[in-house]
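Incident log, entry 3
Record: NitT/TauT family transport system ATP-binding protein (256 residues)
Problem: checksum mismatch between cached and fresh output.
Input:
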Amino acid sequence: MAQITIDSVAKVFETARKRTVALDQTSLTIDHHETVCVVGPSGCGKTTMLNLIAGFLRPTAGTITLDGRTVGGPAADRAVVFQSDAVFPWLTVADNVGFGPRMQGMARAVRAERIARFLDLVGLSDFAKAYPKELSGGMRKRVDLARAYASGPDVLLLDEPFGALDLFTKESMWTALKRVADAEPKTIVFVTHDIEEALFLGDRVIVMTPRPARVHGIVDVPFGPDRDLDLRADPGFQALRMTIAHSLREVHDDAS
Ligand SMILES: Nc1ncnc2c1ncn2[C@@H]1O[C@H](COP(=O)(O)OP(=O)(O)OP(=O)(O)O)[C@@H](O)[C@H]1O
Ligand SMILES: [Mg+2]
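Fresh output:
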């Protein structure tokens, strides 16, 4: 099981110059093996929320639990993919993917099997021996995804992972992520500014308020797991896109 509960969480950043309340009384439950996409105004606190779930930050108040256990710090049960690549330039693609499993002490044969499996799922089997500098930005992102999956987390946290990619590369990343997620379901929290991306990938889309980030609205995505890129032409998809856009405009206007 991997259910995440964010219960009345506050996060306050205090520096010598400034006090910022990024989250306050923020609550959200993310179900086991659900993909939740989070959208919201820039600077509202989405990355902060992800960092709290990851255990990189501690809440100022409230609790975050994973299957009832309080998140106390980073652990192998949660993997994170950021917008910038988290690949080691001095390691081959295969060694990057196998790094987490090696740190966890997985046997060499198990590691090799996992590396092969996830490189295949992200479509990079032919590049196992390549170094990151020999890859395109989209390919490095695939390595990053394979790396995140290979260490066998229960939860995948993604912060605008495809934000820097062009549309076609992005589309191919959606397909790659869906393929891996179907093969190995996880509880996924995916932060994005791209409404179509959120609707294409999510079971629910959460619209956050301006800072402090709280849940402004939740959209249940009615499409089944078998989604192809043409789904975007569906009138139901476009109607939901408009609903979310309006919701975002509402919170934006409230803030300004
Ligand atoms: N380590 C930190 N120290 C001080 N303030 C911080 C820190 N991290 C984030 N903040 C502040 O908290 C607020 C929320 O930041 P956060 O990065 O979570 O926003 P975001 O929703 O992810 O924005 P974006 O969509 O632009 O990525 C911002 O005002 C930011 O300046
Ligand atoms: Mg952010």
